[in-house]
């Protein structure tokens, strides 16, 4: 028999790439991620928006546009993060481009 070296992942950390980098924006990119909660429930997180934007106003518009709930979380290492209920990755990226907050090539979508 042939011996194979297989590593089984223990847990998935969606912010592992952001922790490896030294800046909060990671070269001007906006990272849109999905976090699995329990069952079919999930969270969409938006990290890396410019600091001059009002996160609360952006969140209010996102919640109104997608009919979902959300909040702004302050993280020590990553700065402010917007969390939204459900899988809103594509909708959020389209909204940010349409609103003129970021360019399409500045968005990185992570997830399944």
Automatic annotation (TrEMBL):
Domain SUI1: 30-100
CDD domains in the cross-refs: eIF1_SUI1
InterPro entries: SUI1, SUI1_dom_sf, SUI1_euk
SUPFAM superfamilies: eIF1-like (SSF55159)
GO molecular-function term, one example from the UniProt record: mRNA binding
Role summary: Probably involved in translation.
Descriptive protein name: Translation factor SUI3
Organism from which the protein derives: Trifolium pratense
């Amino acid at each position: 028999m042939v011996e194979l070296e297989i590593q089984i992942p223990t847990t998935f950390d969606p912010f592992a790439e952001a922790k490896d980098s030294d800046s909060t924006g990671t070269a001007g990119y906006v990272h849109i991620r999905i976090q699995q909660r329990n069952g079919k429930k999930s969270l969409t997180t938006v990290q890396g928006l410019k600091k001059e934007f009002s996160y609360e106003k952006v969140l209010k518009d996102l919640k109104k546009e997608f009919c979902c709930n959300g909040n702004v979380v302050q993280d020590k290492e990553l700065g402010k993060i917007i969390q939204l209920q459900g899988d809103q990755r594509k909708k959020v990226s389209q909204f940010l481009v349409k609103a003129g907050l970021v360019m399409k090539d500045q968005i990185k979508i992570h997830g399944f």
